Amino acid sequence: MSDLFSAYDLAGLHLKNRIVMAPMTRSRAVNTVADAQTALYYQQRAGAGLIVSEGSPISRQGAGYLFTPGIYSPEQVEGWKQVTRAVHEKDGKIFCQLWHVGRISHVSLQENGAAPVGASNKKAENTTAFAYDEQGQAARVQASQPRALSTQEVAAVVQDFARAAANAVEAGFDGVEIHGANGYLIEQFINAGINTREDRYGGNSVEGRLTFVLEVVDAVVAAIGSSRVGIRLSPFNRGFDMPVFDDEAQTWLELARLLSGKNLAYVHLSNRKAIINNTNGKAFLEAFRKAYTGTLIMAGEYTKEEGERDLQEGLIDLVAFGRPFISNPDLVARLKNGWPLTAFDPAVFYGGGQEGYTDYPVYEEIADQAAD
Ligand SMILES: Cc1cc2nc3c(=O)[nH]c(=O)nc-3n(C[C@H](O)[C@H](O)[C@H](O)COP(=O)(O)O)c2cc1C
Fold it and tell me: pLDDT category, 110, cuts 50, 70, 90?
C-alpha cells in the first residue's frame, strides 16, 4: 500500500518514506558558502525520505538573493560536503536544487554591476530581489532591468547548469533538481509572454520555448546520468510577474510528454494550489500524470490527509512539504504519530542567524517541557 510512510525506490535510490522536504531558500549563507549551521539545519530534517536543498545558484549571474549558497566555486563545493555528510549520517537523502534566477536579480549582485540576464529584456514589474539598496543595506529591492541573453550566451548557461551538476555530485549530493519553476530563468523561456526571442529558443512556437529547458536537461543528464536528475516546474504560475499565455496547458503537457522519454529521477510540481485553482485544474493534473510517466512529486499547502489522498488516488508518488518543515524538524514523526505541528513564522524565513533556523525543537522536547 502506498502511504506517506512507506519506502520508495527513486530510480534506484532508497527513500525511507514518501515525504519530501521541498526546496526552501533561507538566505543564511554568509559569503554564499554553506557552513556548519546549514549542515545542522538539514541534518535535523533528515527524517524526510528526500530533502531538496534550497535553490543553489549555478553562477554568480544566476543569483538573485543575498546569502544563498552557490554550487559553482570550490569553496562552495567544500561547504556543501558538510551538509551532505550530515544528512547521510542520519540515513537521509539530499538533492541539490540548481538555480538560475534570470531577470529576478539586481545590479548590486552582478559582476561589475552588470544588468541581470533574461530570456528577453522584459522587466519583472513589482517583483523584488534580495540585494543591496542605495545605502548599501541588504534589502528587498525592485528587480533590475534585464538584458536578453544572446544565442551563444544561452549555450554557456546550459554548460553552467551541467558544471554545477557535476559539482553537486562531487559535493556528495544524491542528485540534482533543475529549478525550472517559480518564474526564474527556465520558466522565463517557457512563458510566451516573456520569451519574445526570434532565435531557435524563440517564443513563436511551443517547440522553441521548450528548447532551453530540454537542452539544460540533456546537458545535466550527460554530466551525471538521468537517474540522478529531477526537475521542478510550476504550470500556471503567476508569481514573479509571469503572464497568462496562449496554449499554456498544451505547453506544459508537451513538456511532460518530452520529459517522459528522458528517464529522469522525477518531475516535481511546486504549486498545487495554483494548478487546482485553475479552471479544469484537476483534469490538468490528471492529464499531466498521464503525459509524464515517471515519478511525480507535488508541493503546495499539503496536509497529511490531502497527501495521503493524492497518493491513494495515484495522482502523485511523493508528497512535498515546505513551510511545515521549517518549524517542525521532525515533521515525519509528527505526522506519523499525530502530534501537533508548530506554526511557522514568515518573519524568520529569510536571513538572520540560528533563530527560526536551527532552534525549532522536536516534539518530544516540547512534550518533556510541558511535563516538567
Ligand atoms: C521560505 C521559502 C523559500 C522557498 N524557496 C524556494 C526555493 O529555493 N526553490 C523552490 O523551488 N521553491 C522555493 N519555495 C517554494 C516551496 O518549495 C514550496 O513549493 C511552497 O512553499 C509550497 O509548499 P508549502 O505550502 O508546503 O510550503 C520556497 C518557499 C518558502 C516558504
Answer: very high
**Which stretches within the chain are classed as H helix?**
36-44, 74-89, 151-170, 185-190, 206-224, 248-260, 272-276, 281-291, 304-312, 323-327, 331-337, 363-371
How many residues are given for the chain? 372
pLDDT digits (tens, 9 = 90+) for 189-208: 999 999 999 999 997 899 99
Contact of 104 with 127, CB cutoff 8 Å: yes
What span, in angstroms and rounded, lies between the C-alpha atoms of 39 and 197?
41
Query: Which of 24, 275, 276 should be mutated for ligand 1, with most atoms under 8 A from CB?
Result: 24
Q: Evaluate: CB of 349 within 6 angstroms of ligand 1.
A: yes
Residue pLDDT, tens place only, 205-247: 999 999 999 999 999 999 999 999 999 999 999 999 999 999 9
Digit-coded pLDDT (tens) for 321-371: 999 999 999 999 999 999 999 999 999 999 999 999 999 999 999 988 887
Number of H helices, E strands in the chain: 12, 14
Question: Is the C-beta atom of 55 inside 6 A of ligand 1?
Answer: yes
**CA 324: distance to chain centroid?**
16
- Check if 344 has its Cβ closer than 6 Å to any atom of ligand 1: no
pLDDT of residue 250 exceeding 90: yes
CB of residue 224 inside a 6 A radius of ligand 1: no
- Cα 60 to chain centroid distance, Å, stands at 18
- Report the pLDDT value the prediction gives residue 367, as an integer from 0 to 100: 87
Ligand 1 center to residue 121 CA distance, Å?
26
Residue 312 CB partners (closer than 8 Å, separation 6+)? 2, 3
Class of domain 8-322: alpha beta
| Among 302, 365, 289, 357, CA closest to 333 | 365
Residue ranges of domains in the chain: 8-322
Measured from the CA of 68, which atom of ligand 1 is nearest?
Answer: 8
350 is catalytic: no
Ligand 1 center–CA 168 separation, angstroms: 20
